[in-house]
Amino acid sequence: MQRAIALVDCNNFYVSCERLFQPGLEGRPVVVLSNNDGCVVSRSQEVKDLGVKMAVPWFRMRDLARQHNIVALSSNYSLYADISNRVMSLLSRFSPGQEVYSIDESFLELTGIAVDHTGYARQMRLTVMQHVGIPVCVGIASSKTLSKLANHVAKKNPRYAGVCDFNGMTEAELNGLLARIDVGEVWGVGRRSADRLRDRDIRSALDLKRAAAKHIRSGFSVVFERIVAELNGVSCLELDQVAPAKQQIICSRSFGTPTSRLADLEQAVIAYTTRAAEKLRQQRSLCGGIQAYIRTNPHREQDAQHQSSMLMPLPEPSDDTRLLCRAALHGLRSIYRTGHAYQKAGIMLTGIIPAAARPQTLFDDVPSREKSEALMRTLDRINRSMGSGTIRLLGEGTGKPWAMRRQNVSNRYTTEWDELAVCKAHP
DNA sequence: TCTGGGGTCCTAGGACCC
DNA sequence: TCTGGGGTCCTAGGACCC
């Protein structure tokens, strides 16, 4: 039986989320900006039609924005995450095998589901639209890589009406489509590799499909060998149905305004470590070390540049916020240099293991460990029910002069009592 | 004035061991 | 004169994804 994998992808996801609660944005050019209102990360169709590319710095398109009255919104991840959960849970009804691949994409196993797949996919679109109001497109094929391309075709080509099933096509039809897709659009082929492939006269998805495996293996890597197999309909990438535990947890952020004060960096590092430790405990893991990282703004070449990081191993794996903060601060203080305008700081938890696999040591101090665990549990419970940050370390500070810019952020319409969407009755 | 954040995987090279 | 080979582990860095 032929393998059938669907990729369901939300259209202009963040913009679509914003439009749910601000219907006035419908039909208008809208962008959502990254943290710090830095870059464009989601564009409405109207903005795409103006030729605005993904990840363009916002300050570079100010003129265009004025000219065309583009609405720019700060990103509101609480809202997007909640809408995403609703979409994913609806989609899970369509197959016992689901991989939630990203905030706006999901793979669904359709192999063995004995219905007309195109009709089934139309039903998915309709269901998500009716229940949540988010438009989606569906691509279906015999491997993940092909289903990504099928989705691409469904999105770009109005005549497919949002659903494209490669499995229902003849080889010639499919190749005809692949020949018109740039090799850079293939999943896993980035800008660097696309350039190198073009040097070898591999320009389209079809060219890559037909490339000799040996040739690809030696010139690139096993990853590319797999891509070629997947393009030929040989499924090499399985669906990850349970999200595996993270092997590293990163929390880093650019500052709203650069700072050269160690005290500011310390506050930021404590805040980031606190967040990361919460995530670590959520997935019931411990980490073996923590890395602190600072850097100046690399785009300001006229400024003195400094970037550095230091990994602090822990004496034994831990998930205690206080311990992790202490280690991170130690690292920060050893890399910090006076007189630099730092633009970004971050931390990374590494050497992550399941909490259940905690190694026993000769000098295990069980009572103090149990106290630490109880304290962290209580902390998490209070912050979960009373709002995040209700209880935190004093070192995190209260002023946060370094906090990021979010000039035009919408309400958290679905997750905060104070910001719930209200239906206004018409007179 | 203003350029995101959070992840994964692979490779190369060094250290170390027998 | 002549100085092995193979395995493992770790780290840094590159490339990619959304």
From TrEMBL:
GO molecular function ontology, one term from the record: DNA-directed DNA polymerase activity
Matching CDD domains: PolY_Pol_V_umuC
Keyword Transmembrane helix: no
GO BP field: DNA repair; error-prone translesion synthesis; SOS response
Keywords: DNA damage, DNA repair, DNA-directed DNA polymerase, Nucleotidyltransferase, SOS mutagenesis, SOS response, Transferase
Cited Gene3D superfamilies: 3.30.70.270, 3.40.1170.60
Keyword Cell wall biogenesis/degradation attributed: no
Residue ranges of domain UmuC in the record: 5-190
Protein name in the entry: DNA-directed DNA polymerase
Species annotation: Candidatus Gallionella acididurans
